[in-house]
Amino acid sequence: MKTRIHAAEIDDPSMVDEEEIRQSPFWDWDFAFDAFPDIFMAFVEVTLLVTVIGSLVAAVLGLVIAILIMVLPKPLAWVVRWVANFIRMTPIVVQLIFVFWAFVWMDALTIGIIVFGVHYATYMSEVYRAGIESVPKGQWEATTALSMSAGRIWRKVVIPQALRSTVPSLGNYAISMFKDTPFLLVIGVAEMVTVAGERGAPVFRTTEVYTIAGLLFLAASYPTAVLINRLEKRLAYAH
Amino acid sequence: MEFFEDWPQYFEVAINWSDRLLAGLWTTVQLTLFGGLLAFVIAVTLGLLAGSPNRWLRIPARILIEFFRGVSLVVLLFWLMFVLPQIWMRNPDLPFRDLVYNTFLLGVIALGLNYGAYGAEAVRASLTTVSSGQWEATTALSMSWSHKMRRIIFPQAWALMLPSLANLWVHLLKGSAIAYIMPFVSDFTAELNQLRRPTDIWFSHAFIGLVVYFILALILTVIMQTLEARAKHKLGRGPSLREILSPAPKAVMAEGSAVTVTDPPQDPAGPDSASAKTEGGVRR
Amino acid sequence: MPTPTDAAGIDTEAAASSSPPDTPVIEFVDVEKSFGSNVVLKDLNFQVAQGERVTLIGPSGSGKTTILRLVMTLEELTGGYIYIDGEPLTHENRDGKRVPVSKKEQKKLRTRIGMVFQQFNLFPNMTVLENIIEAPIHVLGQTKKDAIAKAHSLLDQVGLPDKADAHPSSLSGGQQQRVAIARALAMDPEILLLDEVTSALDPEVVDDVLNILRQVADTTNVTMLIVTHEMGFARDVSHKVMMFDGGHVVEEGPPDKIFTNPEQERTRKFLSAVLGH
Q: Where does the ABC transmembrane type-1 domain lie (chain B) (predicted)?
């Protein structure tokens, strides 16, 4: 039977005890150090996990979608394309809730990984499509001239060339996905922001926990983005 | 398959709840419009500052941009909702006390800051994409910075930044769904979620909800493509709006009307946005 | 064809202008320009007198375009001084110290300089007329009525009287360049910089544009600094030709002498390459 307890119930901020807050410091280092390990563990165990596996799903499924759109007969390719557009242009939050209640037997974390993976696969498919289209015509002609089979052309020539240029985009989408992971709180996954809230709520201390969560997002995404940018420049020069 | 047997019930429930769903839809539209407006103002302001030759303007703008797009939207939302009001709790005499408890307003601000920071990068990148010849011509005519920005550079960058801004607006619409977790914000997702109570086959309504969001996203895309076509026509590229909307569309129509996909927001220090690829400057 | 005496004649006319008669309009003193470690110009010294028309020739990469761009402040001067009417353009020499001049002073000097670019650089978001009147109204503070009247007479002069309301994208390259010349002249520049203005044009319209510039040269005493590959044009309009190579002046002199009887082997080689004999 469908027995799910809905997770996202946020306290009304005006309901808190103002007097208590007024008497406590704005920032409490002891509490910050105390809460940090739990938040960090949630960061590693859930946020990073979803990001890494979700990105892998997106990378593989995106390629599948891109190839399907290119090789399927027109009407079918059109259907695949618009399903992808549909997924891409609708909110992850609603998708999460939808899948959460549609597949009640499934574990919420798994749902999270699938939804993020599929959602970003629809973005990645466009990147691959552009990558495949950017393989020079001469390459196709050369393979034809060598009488290579279609499967071989794809495996040996087109995909390796298309993949190279898509690495930076995959990285950028991984960062986007990373910053979207707090949406998981709507299906009750104990990701970083949820855990931060749970640590702060009982003692009416929110400043430290949400600041830590925000800084962890910054600390992980900014250097990664800088690295991806460098990689992208290097790939651009290599051409 | 209960899914198909239950269809009549879905519609019955949806119709009974139509008032609330429409009210929720209206809230979502408002979040998208006001959030989009704020994001646009922030994007242009920070984008211009980040593209300024003066480092005392440029560096603070860069820090703000990286900060507001680096922290997640949800963190920003919670920060505004739980941490910001503490300043007023500690200083009860500060003005605008009611505003910091207005969760709808906080939602608009969070959406505006987050997507505005992404937009700022698009604005900055599109300014640099305006061909160097145009910048040089303004120098040769001794135009001041504000003059050349207002009359020459920005109008040209506008056509280049619109596709990125269109993507971001759709992202903002999608992101606005998270506002339903805030108390007193009954957006479309919140009302959909309430539908779960009278029926145990809620997921099909969530699907209807997805379709509604999809249609909203398509509408935003069409609006932005219209703006883009107009902007391009003003630069002497592409047909005028009247030509596009004329009953006998020409070949160009196919290109202009195809609903293109959205890119996710570019990330800190990410590539100089898709707009960098579009052509710039004068026709040769 | 102008002769050196013409130039001298114009020099005396210059007494009417605000600066002392013998102050050069453009003066380069020990100018040095490098892009990173790549030195493009070094120890460059030359003067251009009021009303003088000087053509810079030389192989590509010899730094001639850089000279124009330095005068227009499109490039940053890395060493030495440039004076316009005796006033420092970017840096001044204060007791041997190289001090940047204020932006305000620089802007004031810059309004006396106009430039026509290889790629025209018309503003695509404005009509031809708007392109021409934009700066006179908003930079020089002319009234709209005056600016429009002047723009129309300039459009007559460049042979495009009926194109005022056209958009640049609807014009041919030659027409765009003629508008660009009108736009530069609308600012009443004391100095006009012409940077390979015909290089991007189809061969059959090159003469139209050059004839307009010849006419400008004949009817005004605007000082011109010209970079061109059109040797015939250079010969017709300039008082002085400077041959550049590797950032140095190889040879300079009146066009008749440079083109018919150059002293330097390097000049001879260059000319025979471009003239094809």
A: 25-224
Nearest-CA distance B232 → chain A (Å): 23
Which residues from C are below 8 Å from B152, CB to CB? Answer: 123, 125, 134
Least confident of A100-109, B111-120, B158-167: A100-109
Nearest beta carbon to residue B136 from set C121, C138, C183 = C121
Give the residue from chain A lying closest to B97, CA to CA: A14
Q: Is the distance from CB of B260 to CB of B278 less than 8 angstroms?
A: no
DSSP C150: H
Using the Cβ of C110 and the Cβ atoms of chain B, whether some distance falls under 8 Å is answered with yes
Compute the 3-state secondary structure of chain C and give helix, strand, coil in percent, each to the nearest 5: 40, 25, 35
Domains of chain B: 22-187+222-277 (1.10.3720.10)
Query: Touching check for C151 and chain B: CB below 8 Å?
Result: no
Give the neighbours of chain B: at least 3 Cβ pairs within 8 Å: A, C
How many independent structural domains does chain A possess?
1
Instruction: Flag if B70 and A222 touch (Cβ within 8 Å).
Output: yes
In chain A, the residue whose alpha carbon lies closest to the alpha carbon of B77 is A210
Mean local confidence (pLDDT), A119-144: 84
A228 touches chain B (CB under 8 A): yes
Q: Which of C106, C125, C225 to mutate to test the interface with B (most CBs of B within 10 A)?
A: C125
Q: Which residues of C touch B139 (CB under 8 A)?
A: 72-74, 110
Best residue of A1, A2, A10 to probe chain B, by most B CBs closer than 10 Å: A10
Q: What is the pLDDT of residues B204-246, one digit of tens each?
A: 677 888 899 999 999 999 999 999 988 888 887 777 766 766 6
Query: Measured between alpha carbons, how far is B45 from B66 in angstroms, rounded to an integer?
Result: 15
Q: What are phi and psi of B174, to 5 degrees?
A: -65, -40
Contact C183 B282 (CB under 8 A): no
CA-based diameter of chain C, in Å? Answer: 55
A221 lies in a domain?
Answer: no
Q: Where are the alpha helices (DSSP H) in B235-280?
A: 241-245, 251-257
Closest chain A CA to residue B170? A89
Residues C72, C78, C84, C88: is their CA dihedral positive or negative? Answer: positive
Kindly state the percentage of chain C with pLDDT values over 90.
61
Residue-wise pLDDT tens digits, B19-59: 888 888 999 999 999 999 999 999 999 999 998 888 999 99
pLDDT (average), residues C145-166: 94
Residue in A39, A51, A97, A170 to test binding to B, most B beta-carbons within 10 Å: A97
pTM, entire model: 0.83
Min Cα separation C16/chain B (Å) = 25
Range of the domain at A139: 46-192
CATH superfamily name and code, C4-106+223-275 = P-loop containing nucleotide triphosphate hydrolases (3.40.50.300)
Question: Domain-by-domain residue ranges, chain C?
Answer: 4-106+223-275
Is the pLDDT score of A97 beyond 60? Answer: yes
Chain B residues closer than 8 Å to C184 by CB: 140
Whole-complex ipTM: 0.85
